Amino acid sequence: MKERIHVGRMILAVQKAKRIKGAEMARLLNMTRVNWYSVVSRQSINSELLMEISVAMEHDFFDDISRIINGRNDNDNGI
Questions:
Q1: Are 14 and 59 in contact (CB under 8 A)?
Q2: What phi, psi does 58 have (nearest 5°)?
Q3: What is the pTM of this model?
Q4: Helix or strand holding residue 39 (H, E)
Q5: Which of 17, 46, 58, 79 could form a disulfide with 10 if both were Cys (CB 3.0 to 4.6 A apart)?
């Protein structure tokens, strides 16, 4: 069985690469900074929230997950 995908770590890797502060992500998503860090600590995230994060960060996390599932992890964002 393949290793499980940790979506929160994927998001944090992109956040770091794009140099977006946690407080800024929380503001963009209309949540507290504490809630933001709770979200990115999760291994899985519901698809609606992931879509909102993708839009806010201008990054397609669904494509990242698809690439991992299909063994095509050719991203350069540390996931």
A1: yes
A2: 55, 50
A3: 0.83
A4: helix 33-40
A5: 79
Q: Which residues contact 62 (CB under 8 A, 6 or more apart)?
A: 50, 51, 54
Site of tokens 């949540």: 31
Using alpha carbons only, give the angle 30, 52, 58 rounded to the nearest 5 degrees.
110
Give just the sign of the alpha carbon dihedral 32, 14, 55, 74.
negative
Closest of 67, 75, 58 to residue 15, by C-alpha: 58
- For the record, the structure tokens of 17 come out as 């690469």
DSSP-based three-state secondary structure for 63: helix
